[in-house]
Design a protein that fits this description.
By secondary structure, the chain is of the alpha/beta class. 30% of the residues lie in helices and 19% in strands. It contains ten helices and 13 strands. It has helices at 40-50, 65-76, 127-132, 148-161, 229-240, 250-257, 262-271, 311-325, 329-344, 356-364; strands at 8-11, 15-20, 33-38, 55-62, 79-87, 94-97, 107-110, 135-139, 214-218, 245-249, 276-280, 286-290, 295-298. It has a nine-stranded mixed beta sheet, with helices on both faces. It has a four-stranded mixed beta sheet with strand order 3-2-6-7. Helix 9 crosses helix 10 (356-364). The longest helix has 16 residues, at 329-344. The protein is globular and about 50 Å long.
């Protein structure tokens, strides 16, 4: 395993997205599709890698050509796939969608009889690497079935109670960490790099445990993976006890806390033990609230929406980037909003994740944000 801690390790869902190449057309009439890496934790890792962070993913695929394709894509995007392993018994999941801009994007998950990413076993985890990562990101879907549920909780326990192997301390940036091209909002040069490379002084203390590590619970409520909200709630509560950051929309916050009103939901997440609560409010923007008393209510970034499905993953990867750089809550959320808006203006998810100069350009009002999707370094 690597000597230096990862900037970000994500854990959970992966699959192949088969998205229509026509918009405004029902799935029954679609004739052509594009094939993309999919799954929220996979996309979050890609989004952070695009912004210069050293990332890895813990998941499983089928032992089939689609699984081989996902490995190929992860590597091409710069995501470490060492902990992406095959499951002989189950096929790699497929996800289809319909695209009816600006706000109707039905999803169809093909994860039967069981998705390989729910077959992550505790004994297979590199808990030392998980404990050492500067940010660890897990999702509600990973709690929906065993053995993934127990494995996810074990990873969280390693974060909150494990002992670090050493290497770079939480406030340092390892040589394998952020690249010199990582952007900081404001004062961005045409090449996308701020004077300090966007690294900041270290991870944002308001979002971190006392040891400086950040553990993010993406509430990720997918009702089709559960028998109902009552089944999910105790497992969400167990995960919240280990997390330092919770991210979700109002529906997801209601599952986790019983509260839908954004300010009440944020306070309930803080009461559950996190240090930063991020509540997505759709057209009303994003609310961020910290345990040390800071509140940021950030408006959305207006764009012409093509496909909104990847926006939340871009937001997540960019939020991790901002927290690693030590930005204040409003700055981190504003940057994440811009990253999400860029992806919402494009068809795909993974290949649409923006580069630093694109996010900076949108924040500055420059046309550079319109770069065609799919480019790679």
């Amino acid at each position: 395993m690597a000597t230096d801690p990862y900037d970000l390790i994500t854990m959970g869902r992966i699959g192949v997205d088969l998205y229509p190449l026509q918009t405004g057309v029902p799935l029954a009439r679609v004739e052509t599709f594009g094939k993309f890496l999919g799954g929220s934790p996979a996309n979050v890792a890609v989004a952070a890698a695009r912004l210069g962070r050293r990332t890895a993913l813990i998941t499983r695929t089928g032992a089939d050509p689609f699984g081989a394709y996902l490995h190929q894509e992860l590597r091409a995007f710069g995501v470490d796939d060492r902990w992406v392993t095959p499951v002989e018994a189950y096929p790699t999941p497929l996800t289809f969608c319909e695209i009816f801009p600006p706000d109707d994007f039905p999803l169809y998950f093909y994860r039967q009889p069981k998705a390989p990413d729910l077959e992550i076993h505790r004994h297979e985890l590199d808990l030392a690497a998980v404990a050492d990562a500067r940010v660890f990101w897990m999702t509600g879907t990973g709690l929906s079935a065993e053995p993934s549920r127990s494995s996810t909780l074990a990873a969280l326990a390693a974060r909150s109670g494990g002992t670090s192997r050493g290497g770079a301390s939480p406030g340092e940036v390892s040589p394998g960490g952020a690249s010199p091209g990582v952007a900081s909002p404001g004062g961005v040069s045409p090449g996308g790099a701020s004077p300090d490379g966007g690294r900041g002084a270290g991870p944002a203390g308001y979002a971190a445990a006392p040891d400086g590590r950040i553990t993010v619970f993406d509430l990720d409520w997918r009702p089709m993976f559960w028998s109902g909200a009552d089944e999910a709630r105790p497992h969400y509560a167990a995960a919240l006890r280990h997390a330092t950051v919770a991210v979700g929309n109002v529906d997801e916050c209601e599952i986790a806390t019983g509260e839908r009103e954004p300010y009440a939901a944020a306070r309930a997440l803080l009461d559950a033990g996190v240090r930063l609560a991020v509540v997505k409010r759709g057209p009303a923007g994003v609310l961020a609230m910290t345990a040390d008393g800071r509140t940021a209510d950030v408006p959305p970034v207006p764009v012409e929406v093509v496909n909104g499905l990847g926006a939340g993953d871009a937001f997540g990867g960019a939020l991790c980037h901002g927290l690693l750089a030590g930005w204040d809550p409003a700055t981190a959320v504003r940057y994440a909003n811009a990253a999400g808006a860029i992806v919402a203006s494009r068809l795909a998810c993974s290949s649409a994740m923006p580069f630093p100069d694109e996010v900076a350009a949108l924040l500055d009002g420059s046309p550079a944000a319109a770069r065609a999707e799919g480019g790679r370094p």
